[in-house]
Design goal:
alpha+beta, two-stranded antiparallel ribbon, two-stranded antiparallel sheet, 6 strands
């Protein structure tokens, strides 16, 4: 993973652990770069003060096979602005737009919320139109 990607997230205020999970890099590498950049150690704030995206990266749990699983069975992220599904936040992280209707994993792993593994309804319909309905399931 590029140093620029780590630097961008450090400057955006993400924790070392969140960056390590998001970019799949060693925590020590992020900590070393934070120190080299002269940035202070990240202090965890109130969950109400964090964005839904930051809460997503703090809580999503990576698996050994490249997926992210949400630890809460309901799939909810509670934030000062309300409650939303982790899969919807993952979709916004990846596509920079609000999802249309429900968001589901398209990687074949139930419960996966990895931003690169989710699709909304129009994306699934397009995929089904190209590759057939069985491929979009």
């Amino acid at each position: 993973m590029s140093i620029a990607a780590i630097q961008e997230l450090l400057l955006a205020g993400y924790s070392n652990a969140a960056i390590a999970r998001q970019l799949n890099v060693a925590h020590a590498r992020v900590a070393r770069l934070r120190k080299e950049m002269g940035l202070p150690v990240h202090k965890a704030g109130s969950p109400a003060a964090a964005s839904p995206e930051d809460l997503f990266w703090r809580r999503a749990q990576p698996t050994s096979d490249g997926h992210l699983i949400w630890p809460n069975p309901s799939g909810d992220i509670r934030h000062i602005t309300g409650r939303t599904k982790a899969s919807r936040v993952a979709f916004r992280i990846r596509y920079r737009r609000e999802p249309v209707r429900n968001v589901l994993p398209d990687c074949g792993r139930d419960g996966c919320v990895h931003p690169d593994h989710v699709a909304d309804q129009p994306m699934r319909k397009t995929y089904a139109a190209i590759f057939g309905p069985a491929a979009a399931a």
